[in-house]
């Protein structure tokens, strides 16, 4: 089998949060502990682990969001990001490189209501990356906007709706359209269906899978819900207390877990709906 090229190589990544918020100044809490992981281009990689295991910290570290939201954070290690003609250490990237990286690596969160500006309409939210990243005429922007609405199953909404006027599923679709309109190579999805009704979850998962194939994306799919991850991932990484305890092809991890923590995690989740 042909070896796939890595698009991301995480080497000895440490993230420590200052515990000043919890009244023990100068103590740091280690959220990621010397974590290393290679991510081949074009793969759908699932990251699982209980709440607090460091999944969101990892997601945010990949797009250098940690030092923006939180000044009390220490990050070390390397996150190498490969493009056709270049490799950048995300941890060391300067403003100009970060701008490029943030186009190439898009992230969607659990709650689009908090990540989408409430003052922007669906039209504005999806047009913004089109205008920021591509040199398009107004007509081309509105054509692309219609295409993205169609592609994400939003063809029937009023594009001038504000997020609060849309359902949870529709809002998440706007978030997906907005992130993919930048034409990234990597999409990070952090618990993106966790707040949605089960029926809507399925729709969003199918949509993400389809768009991943269509645009040849590398998908980093994070969820505490193993059944969701099993459906969407080629490869699974199991995290516990800031470390990777096991990783492997999805079938291997689910059918023949080696690590005690993975076994415990799997046994706590009803998997009856998935026949072998
Ligand atoms: N901004 C922060 N400041 C201090 N501690 C944090 C912060 N964000 C997360 N943590 C802590 O880091 C650990 C990992 O959190 P997180 O990455 O959100 O885990 P997960 O997404 O797997 O639930 C948790 O113990 C959490 O309390
Ligand atoms: Mg999280």
Commentary on this structure:
With 276 residues, the chain is an alpha/beta fold. The protein has a single domain (6-267), classed as P-loop containing nucleotide triphosphate hydrolases (Rossmann fold, 3-Layer(aba) Sandwich). It has 11 helices and 10 strands. The strands form 2 sheets. A 6-stranded mixed sheet has the order 6-7-8-3-9-10, sandwiched between helices. A 4-stranded antiparallel sheet has the order 2-1-4-5, covered by helices on one side. α8 (198-214) links the parallel β7 (186-190) and β8. It starts with 5 loop residues before the first strand and ends in a 9-residue tail after the last helix.
Short description:
With 276 residues, the protein is α/β, with parallel strands linked by helices. Helix content is 38%, strand content 26%.
Secondary structure: elements and pairs:
Blueprint: E1 6-18, E2 28-40, E3 44-48, H1 55-62, H2 66-69, E4 73-83, E5 86-89, H3 95-104, E6 105-108, H4 112-115, H5 122-133, H6 138-151, H7 168-181, E7 186-190, H8 198-214, E8 218-222, H9 226-232, E9 235-240, E10 243-249, H10 250-255, H11 260-267
Parallel strand pairs: 3-8, 3-9, 6-7, 7-8
Antiparallel strand pairs: 1-2, 1-4, 4-5, 9-10
Helix pairs in contact: 5-6, 5-7, 6-7, 7-8
The structure holds adenosine-5'-diphosphate and magnesium ion (MG).
């Amino acid at each position: 089998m042909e070896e796939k090229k890595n698009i991301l190589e995480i080497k000895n990544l440490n993230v420590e949060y200052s515990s000043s918020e919890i009244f023990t100044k100068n103590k740091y809490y280690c959220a990621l502990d010397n974590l290393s992981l290679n991510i081949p281009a074009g793969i759908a990689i699932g990251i699982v682990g209980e709440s607090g295991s460091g999944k969101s910290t990892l997601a945010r570290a990949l797009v250098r969001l940690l030092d923006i939201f939180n000044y009390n954070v220490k990050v070390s290690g390397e996150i190498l990001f490969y493009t056709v003609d270049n490799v950048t250490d995300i941890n060391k990237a300067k403003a100009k490189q970060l701008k490029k990286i943030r186009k190439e690596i898009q992230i969607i969160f659990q709650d689009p209501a908090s990540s989408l500006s409430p003052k922007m309409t669906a039209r504005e939210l999806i047009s913004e990356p089109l205008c920021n990243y591509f040199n398009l005429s107004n007509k081309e922007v509105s054509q692309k906007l219609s295409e993205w609405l169609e592609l994400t199953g939003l063809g029937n909404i009023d594009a001038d709706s504000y997020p609060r006027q849309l359902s949870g599923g529709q809002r998440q679709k706007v978030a997906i359209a907005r992130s993919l309109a930048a034409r990234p190579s990597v999409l990070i999805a952090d618990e993106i269906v966790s707040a949605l009704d089960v029926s809507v979850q399925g729709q969003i998962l199918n949509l993400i899978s389809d768009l991943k194939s269509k645009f040849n994306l590398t998908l980093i799919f994070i969820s505490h819900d193993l059944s969701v991850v099993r459906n969407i991932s080629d490869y699974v990484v199991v995290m516990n207390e800031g470390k990777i305890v096991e990783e492997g092809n999805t079938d291997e991890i689910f059918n023949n877990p080696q690590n005690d923590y993975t076994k415990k995690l799997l046994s706590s989740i009803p998997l009856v709906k998935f026949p072998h």
